[in-house]
Design a protein that fits this description.
It is a multi-pass membrane protein. It is found in: Cell membrane. This is AzlC family ABC transporter permease. Helix 2 runs parallel beside helix 4 and helix 3 packs antiparallel against helix 9. The N and C termini lie far apart (52 Å). The longest helix is centred in the middle third of the chain and has 33 residues. This protein has 252 residues and is mostly helical.
Length: 252
């Protein structure tokens, strides 16, 4: 590695103007965005097969991808239905998983600063992948490009592979025999794992897994997911209590 002879450039926020020399090349942004869009979009095939195997029609399966377009929530919904869960309980679990996208939107609206007439359409593409690509960009221009390319490529490919998966489910037969019943948790874990960067986030995820597995044998399908959502407030409460106790001891 060559010896660095000048101080490193300071990374600027996407909301701040930057010099042209600090802009990330458009080709690099497009390459990264397409890589994410293609890699995740292909898993729509697994969703299409799983959804059809859970008893949803072709129209219902495709409508979920077109109108909901948030993979973890879609998998949670069809997974709960496949396990015999109440449709309302399954929908509630999917809804709570999708709520996180609203918080993503609060952050991205500041970074992207899109025109008002575009925002309702852009909101449909606010998901884990578009958020990750957008936040990784150094300027507003590259953030907008990354968001657009990721959202467009992922939306188109996800819906196409959903259709192919739903149509091919009949030819595949029993999805359990092929191991496709494991596609839902596998894809969800693949999306979640890279986001767990701190000890607190890993602890929340671990506690959520324990709660879900612990209540799985005794609660109706779909309800353990709702119980697992209590992991975050429970851990934050415990940390706050410990911090207050530590503060009191320091005062003494």
């Amino acid at each position: 590695m060559a010896e660095q002879t000048s101080p490193p450039a300071i990374r600027t926020s996407p909301t701040a103007p930057t010099a042209p020399t600090e802009d990330k090349a458009d080709s690099a942004v497009v390459r990264d965005a397409l890589a994410v869009g293609v890699a995740v979009g292909l898993s729509g095939f697994a969703f299409g097969v799983t959804s059809a195997g859970s008893g949803l029609s072709l129209l219902q399966t495709c409508a979920l991808s077109l109108l909901v377009f948030t993979g973890a929530s879609q998998f949670a919904l069809v997974g709960a239905l496949a396990a015999g869960g109440n449709p309302f309980t399954a929908a509630a679990g999917a809804f709570f998983l999708g709520v996180r996208n609203a918080f993503y939107g609060l952050r991205l609206s500041q970074l992207l600063a899109l025109p008002r007439f575009v925002r309702p359409f852009a909101a449909h593409w606010v998901i884990d992948e578009t958020t990750a690509v957008t936040l990784a960009q150094p300027t507003r221009r590259s953030a907008r490009l990354g968001f657009t390319v990721t959202g467009l490529s992922l939306y188109v490919l996800w819906n196409l592979t959903t259709l192919v998966g739903a149509l091919g489910a009949e030819a595949i037969g029993d999805t359990d025999a092929w191991g496709l019943d494991a596609a839902s948790p596998a894809v969800f874990l693949a999306l979640l794992a890279p986001m767990l960067r701190t000890g607190t986030e890993r602890a929340v995820a671990g506690l959520a897994v324990l709660l879900a597995l612990g209540f799985l044998p005794v609660l109706p399908a779909g309800v353990p997911v709702l119980v697992a959502a209590l992991a975050a407030p429970a851990l934050l409460w415990a940390q706050g209590r410990r911090a207050r106790r530590t503060a009191k001891e320091d005062v003494r």
